[in-house]
Design a protein that fits this description.
The complex is a heterodimer of chains A (173) and B (416).
Chain A lengths: L3 E4 L2 H5 L2 E4 L15 E4 L8 H17 L3 E2 L10 H14 L6 E6 L7 H21 L7 E5 L12 H7 L1 E7 L1
Parallel strand pairs in A: 5-6
Antiparallel strand pairs in A: 1-3, 4-7, 5-7
Helix pairs in contact in A: 3-4
Chain B lengths: L1 H15 L15 E6 L6 H18 L3 E2 L4 E2 L16 E9 L5 E9 L2 E10 L5 H15 L12 E8 L2 E7 L6 E6 L3 E6 L6 E6 L6 E6 L5 E6 L4 E6 L5 E6 L6 E6 L5 E3 L7 E6 L4 E6 L6 E6 L6 E2 L6 E8 L2 E7 L10 E7 L5 E3 L5 E7 L5 E8 L2 E8 L4 E6 L4 E6 L1
Parallel strand pairs in B: 1-2, 1-3, 1-4
Antiparallel strand pairs in B: 4-5, 5-6, 7-8, 7-30, 8-9, 10-11, 11-12, 12-13, 14-15, 15-16, 16-17, 18-19, 19-20, 20-21, 22-23, 23-24, 24-25, 26-27, 27-28, 28-29
Classes of the chains: A alpha+beta (173), B mainly beta (416).
Chain lengths: 173, 416
């Protein structure tokens, strides 16, 4: 369950009174009023035993899909990564053909906020184009980019940064 | 002689009006001010914390030579302490606790032992004391007759990453000393103030699986969906009248800059390049600035509000991947080195659309998230240097740069 909590106490931040010497003003801020909204997504009741087995199958198939890696500041697929995408396309067209595909683009920490999200998305788009060229239906594929916000490695090393410049596969029912 | 003087004055004014030219002002020539604490409540630790905050705020004003020594005096004393007798001004304040734990502050400014200014302040608790200090500095600036530092009282909103795909949206004062988490749970990024009054803000939510632009009314806490797009959704800028947004969307996996009418909910695609176009910013004369990699690397371009007439704005740097615009000015982040294998240096630069000059605003480290104050007087940014993170304030017309320690975790995006 995901909770989004919005606490509306920003009124507190700047609600204080400054006044000339002879005009003391009583603090009339609504500091104690906290508007809190919680949005809960309620899961429906279902047969969890069958769901678990389906999820396990999906997770096993996701492990067969190789992550695609990219060069610094680039979004073209080169070298051995082309073969990876071909193998991924084969899995997606056979064993995983019943699932929708979500491509998640990611970056290292060296870009800028918006540009990094766009770079991650272009990486996902490059993988999508390669998959479509290999015969995977475009309608099965959706994309999202997390920029630098979803690292698999947080060390300050070149190997670590390279691991984060990637596109991951997720299978959706 | 009169003609010479007039020309000199004109020369000085024309220099001062162009922020891309560094104006060197001698600190020695500024009026001096000392500060005396006359507090009757609170422990030494809090009193010293308040004093340091006030000294920092007075320094940021850049109009006074501020004495850093902590002196104590009675609020009603007829003379300043002996160490302060030669200062042009003495600011004396008294902190005292009021009913319900409120923090009250009395402030006076003395010149030759005579009061020339005074004001009182009150907040509900000591946790938000930094806002009192900011307001005191703001009022001192007004009293001295200097151009407004309204931005000192504005709030900063930022998102920070707390775990992979987990974030918080936080509201703070301009030094990030006081922080308040306003959106927690899930992955919510790119907060942007919705109007100049800062009564609401936009942000991007990933919780529905599709990037969605949300709006939050701060006073009521209510929120609503604005628009969503596959792949990418960012509110990059809000027009001065708050009626038009510049968004980056990617409905077909193609990131482009769009304008969005808040009333009609209709969007218009402004850029059509096949690569990356992001970070749209409103400029003067019905223009926008944006980041594009249409030349093979990220750089800053301008276009008309309908997307026509694209022009390259910056001719310096290998990789200029983010910008903030105000009127004729654009501040951008430039990568000074190009390496996938070592730490990179990123500096901030300032350009004007009316001149060819470039002013480098920072000198070392990774400097990012530059954002203009609404009046263009100051730039706020984050500096990471030798494992230290700071929030920086650059006073463009005073050529001064201030750093405050930052303990807010990894910042993803920021707006002022």
């Amino acid at each position: 369950m995901k909770n989004v909590i919005l606490s509306g106490v920003v009124a507190t931040l700047l609600v204080f009174s400054g006044c000339a010497d002879k005009e003391p003003v009583v603090d009339n801020s609504d500091l104690n009023k906290q508007a809190v909204q919680e949005v809960a997504q309620t899961a429906s009741v279902a047969d969890t035993s069958s769901m678990m087995s389906e999820e396990m199958i999906r997770a096993a198939l996701e492990k067969e899909l190789a992550t695609v890696y990219f060069a610094f500041d680039k979004y073209d697929i080169v070298g051995e990564n082309k073969d990876k995408v071909s193998n991924d396309a084969s899995v997606l067209s056979s064993k995983a053909s019943a699932y929708a595909i979500k491509l998640e683009g990611n970056c290292d920490e060296w870009g800028s906020d918006e540009y990094n999200i766009a770079l991650g998305l272009k990486r996902a788009d490059a993988v999508k184009s390669a998959l479509v060229a290999e015969g995977v239906s475009e309608s099965r594929i959706s994309m999202v980019s997390y920029g630098e916000s979803n690292p698999t490695c947080t060390d300050k090393t070149k190997d670590c940064w390279a691991q984060n410049r990637r596109v991951d596969f997720k299978l959706l029912p | 002689m009169k003609i010479f003087f007039s020309m000199l004055l004109l020369f000085s004014l024309s220099f001062a009006s162009d922020a891309t030219i560094e104006v060197i002002k001698k600190v020695d020539s500024l009026p001096t001010i000392a500060v005396e604490d006359a507090s009757t409540s609170y422990d030494e630790s809090f009193k010293m914390k308040f004093f340091k905050t006030l000294i920092a705020d007075l320094n940021v004003l850049s109009i006074l030579n501020v004495d850093r020594y902590y002196r104590v005096n009675d609020f009603d004393a007829s003379n300043v302490v002996v160490e302060n007798k030669d200062f042009n001004y003495v600011l004396r304040y008294k902190l005292f606790q009021g009913d319900g734990g409120s923090l009250n502050v009395q402030m006076i400014v003395l010149q030759d032992n005579k009061q020339v200014f005074g004001k009182n302040y009150k907040v509900s608790n000591t946790n938000i004391h930094v806002f009192v200090s900011h307001a005191m500095a703001y009022d001192i600036n007004e009293f001295m007759g200097e151009s407004s530092v309204e931005w000192m009282k504005k709030k900063v909103i930022f998102s920070r990453i707390i775990a992979p795909k987990k974030s918080e949206i936080v509201i703070s004062d301009y030094t990030l000393a006081y922080t308040h988490v306003i959106v927690s749970g899930g992955f919510n990024i790119f907060p942007k103030w919705a109007n100049q009054a800062q009564s609401g803000f936009y942000y991007t939510s990933f919780d529905s699986g599709k990037p969605t632009l949300m709006y939050v009314d701060i006073k009521t806490g209510s929120r609503k969906n604005i628009i969503s797009s596959d792949g990418m959704m960012v509110c990059s800028d809000v027009s001065d009248d708050a009626k038009t947004l510049l968004l980056t969307m990617a409905p077909d996996g193609q990131p482009d800059v769009y304008s969005f009418n808040v009333d009609t909910k209709k969007s218009q695609r402004l850029t059509t390049y096949k690569g990356i176009d992001v970070n749209g910013q409103f400029m003067e004369n019905n223009k926008i600035a944006f980041v594009s990699e249409r030349m093979g690397y990220p750089n800053i371009f301008s276009a008309n509000r309908n997307g026509s007439g694209v022009e390259q704005l910056v001719y310096y740097g290998n990789s200029n991947s983010s910008c903030s615009a105000n009127g004729e000015y654009v501040v951008y982040k430039a990568r000074e080195s190009s390496s996938a294998y070592t730490s990179n240096t990123f500096n901030l630069h300032l350009i004007s659309t009316k001149t060819d000059s470039i002013r480098r605003l920072t000198a070392s480290g990774v400097n990012e998230f530059p954002r203009f104050s609404k009046d263009g007087d100051a730039v706020i940014y984050i500096k990471n240097y030798q494992a230290q993170s700071s929030i920086g304030i650059i006073r463009l017309n005073h050529n001064r740069n201030f750093l405050f320690p930052l303990n807010s975790g990894r910042i993803q995006s920021m707006d002022w």
